[in-house]
Amino acid sequence: MIQLRDVGFYPGGQRILDGINLEIEPSELFVIMGASGSGKSTILRLMNGLIKPDTGQVIVDNLDITNFSEKQLTGIRRNVGMVFQSAALFDSLSVADNVGFAWREHKISRQQYLAQIKETLRIVGLEGVEERMPAELSGGMRKRVGLARSIAMNPKVLLYDEPTAGLDPVTSNRILDLIVDLRTRLDVTSVMVTHDLQGAFAIADRVALLHNAQIGFVGTVADMKSSGDPLVQAFMSGGQGLVG
Ligand SMILES: Nc1ncnc2c1ncn2[C@@H]1O[C@H](COP(=O)(O)OP(=O)(O)OP(=O)(O)O)[C@@H](O)[C@H]1O
Ligand SMILES: [Mg+2]
């Protein structure tokens, strides 16, 4: 569903990503981990065309989007939703209009619009908050509204940037359950960046570790747990020596 072929990203001559090869299968739940600043968010941004690689190719749903124009990318981003680290809600719009953003140009009645919003909020476990403004929500609720807005686009792929960061364990688990549920029910291909090793182990099909601008390891959770690779072992024991 998503392929990075020999991707390099060198802004201002800095080696941020170098020779990245990844192939994410349809409906896979793929997790990317690595130290802060290792390039995880950058990989997600490459996957929906927010940035372009300096070398290599990015293939999404059998289309090489590497040299796509902004206009062509708009179509791709409808299929590839991004759930940002910060939720990135429109602060001047109500929860309802944030969730319904993708439908604002659809010719549907107000009643149908509100019904769809209600159903989408129900999927993420939020009810009766349509009229609230983003500033009136907790961090966990904001993340769920951000997720609802992405689901509303009916995407084939969802990219999650640290969806559980800064949340309490109960809310984190609820978000992880939701990610699994979306994969199961809507068959979305999911790529999640996280620092939460337990969360990754709980839901990932495969995990990739970014290290030194490259993929240091990629494999199933079982592969990772039984790996004798010093990089993997260092990472699992708390990440000593893994800066960058
Ligand atoms: N467009 C850009 N121009 C210059 N440098 C960039 C650009 N995008 C990212 N970087 C640099 O690339 C590195 C990786 O950034 P990225 O945000 O991908 O890290 P990350 O792994 O997501 O980190 P964190 O866990 O802290 O979110 C950082 O050093 C960042 O400053
Ligand atoms: Mg990041």
Question: Could you outline the blueprint of secondary structure elements for this entry?
Answer:
Layout: E1 2-9, E2 17-24, E3 29-34, H1 40-47, E4 55-60, E5 63-64, H2 70-79, E6 80-83, H3 95-99, H4 110-123, H5 139-151, E7 157-161, H6 169-186, E8 189-193, H7 197-203, E9 206-211, E10 214-220, H8 221-226, H9 230-236
Parallel strand pairs: 3-8, 3-9, 6-7, 7-8
Antiparallel strand pairs: 1-2, 1-4, 4-5, 9-10
In short:
With 244 residues, the protein is of the alpha/beta class. The protein has helices spanning 40-47, 70-79, 95-99, 110-123, 139-151, 169-186, 197-203, 221-226, 230-236; strands at residues 2-9, 17-24, 29-34, 55-60, 63-64, 80-83, 157-161, 189-193, 206-211, 214-220. Magnesium ion binds at residues 40-41, 161.
Keywords:
binds magnesium ion, four-stranded antiparallel β-sheet, six-stranded mixed β-sheet, binds adenosine-5'-triphosphate, about 240 residues, about 35% helix
Q: Could you characterize the architecture of this molecule?
A:
The protein is an alpha/beta fold. The protein contains nine helices and ten strands. The chain has a six-stranded mixed sheet, with helices on both faces. It has a four-stranded antiparallel sheet with strand order 2-1-4-5, covered by helices on one side. Strand 9 and strand 10 form a beta hairpin. The longest helix is centred in the last third of the chain and has 18 residues. It is globular and about 55 Å long. The mean pLDDT is 91. Adenosine-5'-triphosphate (ATP) binds next to helix 1.
